[in-house]
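Researcher: Good morning. I'm working through a list of sequences from a screen, and I'd like to move beyond sequence-only analysis. For each chain I'm collecting a predicted structure so we can compare shapes side by side. This is the next one on the list. No need for commentary yet; just the structure.
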Amino acid sequence: ADAMNEGAEGAIRTFTEQFHVPVITTYKAKGMLAEDHPLSLGGAGLSPLADRTLVPFVQAADLILCVGYDPIEMRPGWRNVWHPDQQRVIDITAAPNHHYMHQASLNFIAHSGATLAALGAGIEGRRTWQGGEVEKAKEALATAFPTDEDWGPAAVMDTCRRVLPQGTLASADSGAHRILLSQMWTCDAPRALMQSSALCTMGCAVPMAIGAKLASPDRPVISFSGDAGFLMVAGELATAAELETPVIFLVFVDGSLALIEKKQRERQLKTAGVDFGRHDYAAMGRAFGGNGVSVRDRAGLEKALKEAMEADRFTLIAAEIDAEAYDGRL
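Model: Good morning. Structure tokens for this chain:
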């Protein structure tokens, strides 16, 4: 997002609090407003389930501010979700709108933060959304993405978020887990969750995590991968070992290209080319000189995470989950 590249998070927070404006970010701009802030509605763009709450919320606004918004990051469901003849829309971007995924009433081609500051200068803010709409939207999102399951992908993400401290850097590979993670992994700062953009690159999470640890050696770093994406880049564990980067590599093990398998079933197609064996990923971690452990419950995962944070080498945690565990969750 332009706003993230321009370092506009301070200006966004100031404007948000001055005018009581709720904020929805793209999934790559998560943390531009800390996601525990009362006016943050988290990241959008990947989850149809989240869109059921967020799209109608946006359509109910009388003014929409697009601040460095790059719609290439969004699902097609966000194409032309508003109409400038029905809603006031201000678009602040670093480049002209050549994508035509949305239109605006007014366009500024300028720095996001400086433009927000200029728009708000000398104006006294007032409370908006006084019917509790923001709180209701937050409650609807919390209901849509519960954290109380005994075991499964949401339990894995919830446990990791609770155990790992604020300031942890995370990377997400492409796949079903990324859609859920983008809703459940709360970020208190920009770039706290690194992921691919619209190209949906498989295998990116592992090398991104290694790079993040090299750049920020004092911060915990965890990568989240599906088993298929991890297998594409398993050799990068050698790099992690040789560079002595104590990264936590978490692999969701369900023996499937879960997102593609899910889409095939939803289209009533015979599944093809999406299932494979459940390999011993923990043994792969140990074979490359790191630690490796398989977990099948919250207690085992919590223990593995705490030990990984104290380790002097990388740790691969293989989280064994059921097939079709993402059904109804995305």
